[in-house]
Amino acid sequence: MRKKVGHLLYVEQPERQYYRWQSFGPTDRQTENLWVDLSTLHKSQVRIHGILSNAHRQAARVALSFDFPFYGHYLRQITVATGGFIFTGEITHRMLTATQYIAPLMANFDPSFSKNSTVKFSDNGNLFVVQWDKVRLKDRENEGAFLFQAALHKNGTIVFNYRDIPVPVEKMNSTEHPVKVGLSDAFMEFLPSSQISDARRRTIYEYHRVQIDTTKILSGSAFEFTPLPTCLQHTSCDICITSNLTTGCGWCNTLQRCSDGIDRHRQEWFDYKCHEEVRNILHVYIQTGPPNHKGITENTTIIAGVVAAMVLLVALTILAVYYINKHPTVAPPFYLMQRRTNNYWPSMKFRNQGCHSSYAEVELGGHEKEGFIEAEQCC
Questions:
Q1: CA 103 from chain center: how many Å?
Q2: Is rRNA-binding one of the keywords (predicted)?
Q3: What is the mean pLDDT of residues 344-349?
Q4: Which is more confident, 207 or 356?
């Protein structure tokens, strides 16, 4: 089922599971085990971000010391926001920040209210923790200070820990700032704007969202998200197609990638016609089965066929070169494919961008630059 909101399209896929999660209450023993007590670490292991700790609606890029798997994609850089969430995308476009996040408690927090309000980091090579420490809601500072954290484990596990929650999430106002808790990921796809035009319309698809029961967010509670296997983890054609850990996977020889076509690389998957390649490979598997299931004789036949094809290809190449040398005025019948080298999506313009104030992304040197935009779409 698809829900259209402006240029944002949410694709409901209840049959696809990316994470398994469970909650722990204040009386559960596991809650205390999940909490990462930064106060017990050496000062050199904990960093208080000076800018985020003294600002409102700011965000800063943070480099991780390890590759963190998120929806099957490995992240080495994230963006931490004062508003109680982590942006996991590569670019900072307002609609993508609405759909690519790790949000223990996204809300209108203002760490600049007090010197005791800080945003802390810790990274030991296997675990990255960001803690919003004694932060208060903007214009509701007298209602109390919040203390919570998000812990990213090297194996992909994500933990939300809540130590002090003075205001129930249901009573937080989302008018000035969105209130969200959970995980989300999205991809951007280019679609023809019309059949008679060459222009292409860019649409953002939020292909999965993990939402939790916010009534369970209490002081002393925790949530643990365990990643499930994805197609992207398979590194060979046979495993991609035959693995019992995943379903709906297809192998693209051109990109040397296993995918179901629903991930951040979807545009590239279609640009290189991987969806057509997958159909052909599946057809071969349906007709003959995977090589390792048919015995030595069939393997030998397949190898012989591959060798014969290579010999034929070499022969055709030699003939083509001979023909070109004999007919130098004739253009060679070869076409080169130029691979796209720009890793960032083009910027997008949207109407009604004044529904929420924007975030400003900051650098370590203290210089501010516009770019990280408030994580909510306008209707």
A1: 13
A2: no
A3: 28
A4: 207
